[in-house]
Design goal:
four-stranded antiparallel beta sheet; alpha+beta
């Protein structure tokens, strides 16, 4: 009888724990803020033979607000990205295209090499940084057969 009572107490505690965790999950989902900044394409795979061309990155202003952005190339080959790092969007601009060039060396090792273009919203007068987005560029070099 003592064992049965302990089993029912344990089941009741598990039920309470599940209810607590579900409530916590609902609260977390309801507290998520909607982003005002989008980046397209989020991923771009570029063949090494076409690397030294001009490419386009689109910044999407979903909330139609004034934005001052900084684009920061990151990764081992970030120094080969040529672009204007400062971008401004007015509240009337829905989307802005940013042009960049990859000046990659021909002797990249085979396989994928990543460059990340991190788009950071610069603080306004209120010093509130809300949105940071990134686009990933993967330069793919197939191994050469000798």
């Amino acid at each position: 009888m003592i064992v049965k009572d302990n089993v029912w107490k344990l089941k009741g505690n598990i039920w309470k724990l599940n209810l607590f965790l579900m409530s916590l999950l609902v609260l977390l989902l309801l507290s998520v803020d909607v982003s005002a900044l989008g980046v397209a394409p989020s991923k771009n795979i570029i063949d090494i033979d076409k690397a030294n061309l001009e490419y386009t990155l689109s910044i999407i202003n979903n909330d139609n607000k004034d934005l001052n952005l900084l684009i920061i190339p990151q990764g081992e080959y970030a120094k080969y990205v040529v672009l204007d790092p400062y971008v401004s969007l007015s509240s009337s601009e829905k989307e802005k295209e940013i042009k960049y060039t990859l000046n990659l060396p021909k002797d990249l090792p085979p396989g994928p090499n990543k460059i990340i273009l991190l788009v950071v919203e610069l603080p306004s007068k209120s010093l509130n940084m809300e949105n940071n987005k990134c686009s990933i560029i993967i330069i793919n070099r197939a191994p050469r057969n000798s």
